Amino acid sequence: MRNAWSGHTFPHPPGRRRWMKDAHSMDPERPVQHILEHHRDLGPIFEIVVFGQKFVFVADAELAAELNDEKRFVKANSPALEGLRGIAGDGLFTARNDEPNWQLAHDLLVPAFTKQAMQRYHPVMAETLDELFVVWDSGDGRVDVGGDMTRLTLETIGRTGFSQAFGSFTTDEVHPFVEGMVTALTLGRRKGVIGALPGARILERRLDRRHADQLDYVRGFLDDIVRSRRTAATTGGDDLLGIMLDQAHPVTGQRLSDENIRYQILTFLVAGHETTSGALSFAFYYLVRHPDVLAKAVAETDAILGDDPDATPSYEQVPRFRYLRKVLDEALRLWPTAPGYARSPREATTLGGRWTMTPDDWALVLLPLVQRDPAVWGEDADVFDPDRTRPRLASTAKPFGTGERACIGRQFAVHEATMALARILHRYDIAGDASYELTINERLTLMPEDFHVTLTRRRPATGGTPLPAVEDAPAAAAVCPYTGSTSG
Ligand code: MNH
User: Fold this and answer.
1) Predicted TM-score (pTM) above 0.90
2) Which positions are annotated as binding heme (predicted)?
3) Annotated active-site positions, please?
4) What residues have CB less than 8 Å from 402, skipping those under 6 apart?
């Protein structure tokens, strides 16, 4: 059996049953929160066996650092990722390391995330925010943070990557593509979980049949995006879609197939918005919970943007919001919206000096635990504090993953989220609901649930607010603002 760990059994939740194993001690609706609430005492590495599948979790920064070592380990496709292959195929996120389409698509699409590319996306990101502000200004000030951040990030990736708008700001209804996508994703996750059970194929086919209409709609929608670009009078374009349709690999001359392009569009539309909207929502959650942090953040926006509430930062100004960046990093430390990634050894090895691990074995780096490891972050590891100094082994805080298969959209996400935070905090006074208790929706990614704030237009303070002190900020602008703190 795959992931047998040479027969080794790790610590696991108490009360394991003979057939159901650990099913009673996992929560399919909120697996990550359940582990944080109930299983933090299982130690640095533990297992949960459900539905005939062994999941090995790493909670410890030292072990995570080992798994992050690209010389010894590579990305593994967890069952959850494999479950998505029905709709995302060998798209970038779900491709297996040895599939030729990974390298091909990676090489073709890296240029879509360079500095020059980001400079092209910048005004589109700014315009999309303007449209959100129009909606907010015509409302009563009460805002569903998760919902509106999702609208914002979906519009942004749709427009920047594919010249595809979703009308998120003109209607209250969810775009049918989004609905279909969510169905497809939920389906994928369920398939991933049941995959190891006898009879899974039959169940899977039944699930597919039940949702056939929605899945067909998604497929048709993706085909339309491709078709309308191909028939457009002006072909070309240097956005994601343009690159995929028009460019050949500079060395091999190979091109992406139509099927693979569909997989990539879906991959980027999903990966390009879910995680970023969650990150923004958690940042707002912590900001309204910490008035001192909020005040510092607002002061930074006034110092950089001045007294015009509609001021838009230039591309070059965005990385100067160093304190906002710390807020974002700290939110992603506590609640990494993509809560983990799986790793396998390149060849048989020993993990932690003790456990034999073969290329058939994989472990999940469980980021919400690794990034709160008290050995690294101290006893107050669970506390939100953007000013904390990043200690030894802080390099295991990797909300964007690690190595060759790390997030290709990291700069995109950080630029988009920083600008959104800056402009929103500069433009509105923001008040939370004191009685709100954080509950997190775990769909594919993490997202605060039913979190609302009240916005009122503000008039930024005029004139020379001094920049708030930001400790250990890189001294010279020569340091790339994006490759600094959290990953490597
Ligand atoms: Mn993103 C891979 C987190 C924003 C597109 N992303 C990953 C991985 C993590 C991750 C973790 C690695 C998964 C693994 O090892 O199995 N991503 C994030 C977070 C944000 C994010 C926390 C926002 C915050 N991601 C984005 C954006 C885009 C994007 C924005 C696109 C515009 N991510 C990807 C793609 C991959 C990926 C594509 C797969 C890369 C590869 O394997 O080559």
Assistant:
1) yes
2) 407
3) 275, 400, 407
4) 68, 70, 341, 487
